[in-house]
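Handover notes (outgoing to incoming on-call)

Open items:
1. Copper amine oxidase-like N-terminal domain-containing protein: sequence verified, structure written out, both below. Nothing else pending on this one.
2. Nothing else urgent.
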Amino acid sequence: MKKKLLIGLIAFTMISGTAYAATAINGLYKGRAIVKVTVNGTEVKSIVPGQLIDGATMLPLRAIAESLGATVDWDGAKQSASITTQQQPTQTGLTLTQLNKLGESVGIVYQLDAQNKQIGTGSAFVVDGIAVTNWHVADGNAVSLMIDFGSSVQTVQVKDAVFKNEAADLIGFKVSGVTGLKLNTAELKKGDKVYAIGFPKGRFAITEGAYQFNSLVGTMVFDAGIGPGSSGGALVNSAGQVIGVVVGENDGSPNGHAIPTKKLQDELNK
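Copper amine oxidase-like N-terminal domain-containing protein structure tokens:
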């Protein structure tokens, strides 16, 4: 999609304390001080350089626009310039029907102690016949996990995990009869649409948000609402592919955290 901005001048003013200094450290152009311009660290070259004129910094429109990936068209009759910029295509997202279908592969986890007493809840989802959740969901006094997918309820023993990685906060168990989700390990861009699917506070929920950034500890930060019990749930992209394992709750905070699927894929490859 293209967006056009019509302007009537071929220069703009930068508000800066240095703009009013009438020094000529970069030389002169027709008696005026030259202003050196860089875009993302690269100097912008143009026939007519940036200049200080009457206390304002005037920059070459075409050179600046093209250095930012835009195009400029000049209309001599109207004495006006038109700048055209490229915009990213809008992500359409998933329908509620599609999201609910994905939710069939996500189950609520009941932590059971040695007396078969429930001591907590979490979430899990299936990939290639493996029910994936967080290590901390199975850690502690839990001896077994009962996972309810709606269509089936399966109980697994914590000691029978097919993989477990405390440092990565991941653990997996063999299950059967549940359709698995697809993984996507590609890098995300800030603002990419995401959906958190899990069981916060023991109730099935799908929340929409956007990817923000990767934290210093390597978790994915996103702003879809989650809560206690969401741990181990699936974070999916707008194509319905799992991009992370939900690990942190954001009750009272704008952001939640998820373990990138690359770490999960490493465990599955083992």
